[in-house]
Design a protein that fits this description.
Elements (H helix, E strand, L loop, with lengths): L21 H13 L17 H5 L2 E2 L20 E5 L2 E2 L14 E4 L21 H9 L4 E5 L9 E8 L6 E12 L4 E11 L2 E11 L4 E8 L6 E10 L4 E8 L4 E10 L5 E10 L4 E10 L5 E10 L4 E10 L7 E10 L5 E10 L5 E9 L3 H9 L4 H17 L5 H23 L1
Parallel strand pairs: 1-7, 2-6, 5-7, 6-8, 7-9, 8-10, 9-11, 10-12, 11-13, 12-14, 13-15, 14-16, 15-17, 16-18, 17-19, 18-20
Antiparallel strand pairs: 2-3, 4-5
């Protein structure tokens, strides 16, 4: 792990007060790191994603920084917002004044009660090298706890911002998120990663949705193209609970998302969707794992990619049905749109089934805009560029339109429009 030695905290931050329960977890993660190495193209899980640029980058610990969050504010979450800059809590930009009674939205360093849940899903034994690096060395993070039967009406917004160093070196930020919904609780979470300049954001999220609870979770990654984003999600869904997660990837030069979700009891339901919009030489890699462990579980996964210029998208999604997980209903789709001859997509949906009474299916498509659809739109008066833009926008819009936070939906709709118009201009040229 010498490639990421700069991801150790600054010496003056090591003595900052943190819950005592963290220490044994940190030590276990450090021990795991000693036996792990930096991934290369020889590793099956990384064979399409070359981390040479990341490996050759010199990272430095991050100092404190002040940022302007006005462009990221969601009016619907005015009093339910936590902000972190370079992995450190920004109390000035945060506002939790509108939380219902009993709901806890805190920075982890001040939430000693969260220590028993931290690392329960992203265990050092089962985590990859990046998740263990986060566990061993993160300084703070966000904690959301919704007690039994409580519904949080307003969306909860957790904003992780990275800030480049003034000396032009590359900063390393470690983002951490822990969410616990007790029995019958309901909430909607927006997890956003953004910032400016060159930095690595190594993010880990742990989500525990207890019996009968329901969580909607928007994961938005719109970091600058000179940055890196390595994110892992570990979720557990209990009996008759529901978890819906949408990941939208717009930014970072190299981006990796690794969601792993366990449907841990009967009647658990999961929607795990993703959308990546890529141009230039961006690389976006998604490796997902959906684990059906008990009967009557339902999972739906739809992952879409729009790749332009010389960009590359990778999708490897596995649905695993364990023995005894009868009446599992699992569907997985990977749909990919190529806008240039140089763009690449590697997709591999997988099913591994050890139960005999299931309804499971998966599929993948990779293609360009349909010539017949283009002709139809042109026959109705649109020029070629506008027809291309409309079809490209429509390909992405169905996922964006499902987002129930109006201001966030508008932001992402505009981002998709900006990308499609840019692609259309390139095609016209």
């Amino acid at each position: 792990m010498t490639a990421l030695t700069g991801c150790s905290p600054m010496p003056e931050l090591l003595d900052a007060p943190r819950p005592a329960g963290w220490e044994s977890l940190r030590q276990a993660a450090e021990r795991a790191l000693e036996a792990q190495r930096f991934p290369t193209l020889k590793d099956e899980a990384w064979k399409y994603t070359d981390l040479k640029t990341l490996r050759e980058t010199t990272f430095t610990p991050v100092p404190s920084a002040s940022v302007d969050i006005r462009e990221h504010i969601l009016p619907e979450a005015k009093g339910t917002r936590l902000v972190f800059v370079n992995g450190r809590f920004d109390a000035h930009s945060s506002n939790v004044s509108a939380l219902p009674a009993g709901v806890r939205l805190l920075n982890l360093a001040s939430a000693s009660e969260a220590a028993k849940e931290l690392g329960a899903l992203a265990t050092p034994e089962a985590s990859d090298v990046f998740a263990n690096l986060n566990t061993a060395r993160f300084l703070d993070g966000a904690y959301l706890f919704v007690p039994k039967g409580v519904r949080v009406e307003s969306p909860v917004h957790v904003l992780f911002l990275g800030s480049a160093q003034q000396d032009k070196t590359t900063a390393c930020a470690l983002s951490r998120l822990l969410v616990v919904l007790e029995k019958g609780a309901e909430a909607h979470l927006v997890e956003e990663h953004a910032g400016h300049g060159a930095f690595l954001n190594n993010a880990v999220a742990e989500i525990h949705v207890h019996e009968g609870a329901s969580l909607g979770h928007e994961r938005i990654q719109r970091q600058p193209v000179e940055s890196f984003h390595i994110g892992s999600l570990h979720a557990r869904i209990e009996r008759n609970a529901r978890y819906a997660s949408r990941t939208v990837t717009l930014g970072a030069g190299i981006s990796r998302q690794s969601p792993s979700v366990v449907l841990a009891d009967e009647g658990a339901e999961l929607n795990l969707d993703g959308l990546a919009l890529l141009n230039g030489s961006q690389i976006a890699d998604t490796h997902s794992f959906i684990d059906h462990t008990k009967p009557n579980g339902v999972s739906r996964q739809l992952h879409k990619t729009i790749a332009d210029d010389r960009s590359r998208a990778i999708f490897n999604g596995k649905i695993f049905v364990r023995p005894g997980a009868q009446a599992t209903d699992a569907q997985q789709q990977s749909r990919n749109l190529l806008l240039s001859e140089q763009a690449q997509v590697d997709t591999k949906p997988e099913l591994e089934i050890f139960a005999d009474d299931v309804k499971c299916a998966h599929g993948a498509t990779v293609g360009q805009l349909d010539p017949e659809e283009l002709f139809y739109l042109q026959s109705r008066g649109l020029n070629l560029t506008d027809a291309q833009n409309l079809l490209t926008y429509g390909f992405a819009a169905d996922l964006i339109d499902r987002i129930p936070v109006p201001s966030l939906k508008r932001q992402l709709q505009q981002a998709v429009l900006d990308r499609t118009h840019s692609a259309g201009a390139g095609a016209k040229a």
